[in-house]
Structure formats: structure tokens, C-alpha cells
Amino acid sequence: MTKQPDADELPIHDFPTATSVAEFTRNIADVRANIARAAARVGRPPADIQLLPVSKTVPEERVRLAIAAGCTQLGENKVQEAKRKSETLADLGVEWSMIGHLQTNKARDVAAFASEFQALDSLRAAAALDRRLQAAGRSLDVYVQVNTSAEPQKYGLPPEELEAFLRELPQYTSLRVRGLMTLAIFTSDTPRVRTCFTLLRTLRDRMRELDPGLVGDGGLSMGMSGDYEVAIEEGATCVRVGQAVFGARQVPDSHYWPEAFPQETAGAPPGPRP
Ligand SMILES: *Cc1c(COP(=O)(O)O)cnc(C)c1O
């Protein structure tokens, strides 16, 4: 259900809310079909692209339905919410990927329940996680978040700091570097969105040339409900998709990235992206 996009505009999706296992199965199949089409356009095997469903703000009853429809790993932005869900859904054996900014005082929680952390952008967070993980005898998959939009946004390393950062990471032996992660600029202007994804891939390639060990597996986590097809065309190996799987979210994006929406307050009603 995609309206015809204007030239150079991202398609406008309406994201149907899934309230049964069958509806989740259909939404997931639709997303996987889109992934396969985007991969085919650039000659990539669709199996190279992981779909990470993002369940933030979704109540536990509906998360259970998504798990019944086959989701085995779920992405969450906020530690408190993820921790609560990991406890109440512990019987289902699903893995939790933290995709939002980490305050170091929450490192102990993340080290206890998460299998992956995609938003690593400070050595303080790396050290805090490593200390807790060592104590627990666990390891954690991590992606290093890069700010590719050159917006004065808080989260993600500036590209010019990436190399030095990656060279420090091996000392934190419980962290397993899976690759790089980014959020594209919030706009419906596809060429500008694409620029962010191209930059992340270019950085990955440059780091690999410097030293093949620097970026670990060399994965690229990029692309969300509104732009994952573009991200796949630019090399994404993991797409983080919430609304296209679960349904439109009532909480505005400014709640998660206030710095990207300076004109809105965090409590503003959902509206079109600027
Ligand atoms: C919420 C979120 C997503 C998914 O966004 P949707 O628009 O629901 O697909 C992806 N990445 C991060 C970091 C998020 O917080």
C-alpha cells in the first residue's frame, strides 16, 4: 500500500497495525519482499540482509504475536523498556538488540540482558559495558554509530573520529565489533538520505583498507521503515524496521531524537517529517 512517490521523494507508506499473528506474518512478508526487490536491483543476495524488527512502544501482548510470527531478535531504543520486556517475555527466548543511545549508568542492565548494542559512540560506554560484561562472563555484539548527516545531532561519532575510536576498541575484549550503524537525515529528500548511507559504506571500506580487523565483520546497520530500500541499495546488512512491521507509532520521532527536531517539543503530536 504505497502511494506513487514524486520523483526523488521517498514513498509515503501507511503502516498497518498488526493485531494478530496472521497480520504480523503478512507485514513481515511484505517487508521481506521489499528487501528482496531492493537487493535484486543492485545484484545482492537478500540473505545478506538481516531484518531487525524494532518493537519500541509496542505493548507486550502484541510483541508476543510478533514473536509467534517468527521474530527471534527485537530492537529496542530505551533501556528501561527493553529490560522490562526482556523480563516479562523471558519465556520466549527472544534476543534483544539495543539500538538507542546508552547512558553509562545503564551499562549494567544492558550487559545483563542484551545480546547486541548498536549505538556505541563513546569509549566511556565501551569501558562501562566491558567492565560489566567481564564480571558477568558475557560478550556483546556492537556496532559503532556514526553521525553521517553532519547535523548538529548529539549521537554518533563524527566520521573524522572513527578511525581513532576503532583503534581503541580491541582493549575491550568482551565487545565483538560487528560493523557500523547510522541514522540518515530526517527528510523525504531521497538523494540526501542516500548520501548518509553512501558515506557509511565508504567509511567502512576505507577502514577495511587501513586494517581489515578495524571494523570487525564490516556490517552496515542502516535503514528504517521509511528508507530501508535505499539503505539496501547502498549496502545495508541490517535494517532496523519498526513501523512497517508493527504499525504506525503514535510516539513522535522527536521523542527519540529531540536534537533532530529542534522546532518540536518531545510531547508534540506525530506529524510529517520535516
Ligand atoms: C525506532 C528506531 C528505528 C525504527 O524506526 P521505524 O520508523 O519504526 O522503522 C530504527 N533505528 C532506531 C535507532 C530507532 O530508534
TrEMBL record:
GO terms for molecular function: pyridoxal phosphate binding. The modification N6-(pyridoxal phosphate)lysine is found at K56. It comes from the Bacteria. CDD domains: PLPDE_III_YBL036c_like. Gene3D superfamilies: Alanine racemase. InterPro entries: Ala_racemase_N, PLP-binding_barrel, PyrdxlP_homeostasis. Its cofactor is pyridoxal 5'-phosphate. Residues 29-249 form the Alanine racemase N-terminal domain. Keywords: Pyridoxal phosphate. Pyridoxal 5'-phosphate (PLP)-binding protein, which is involved in PLP homeostasis. PANTHER family: PROLINE SYNTHETASE CO-TRANSCRIBED BACTERIAL HOMOLOG PROTEIN, PYRIDOXAL PHOSPHATE HOMEOSTASIS PROTEIN. NCBIfam families: YggS family pyridoxal phosphate-dependent enzyme. Belongs to the pyridoxal phosphate-binding protein YggS/PROSC family. This is Pyridoxal phosphate homeostasis protein.
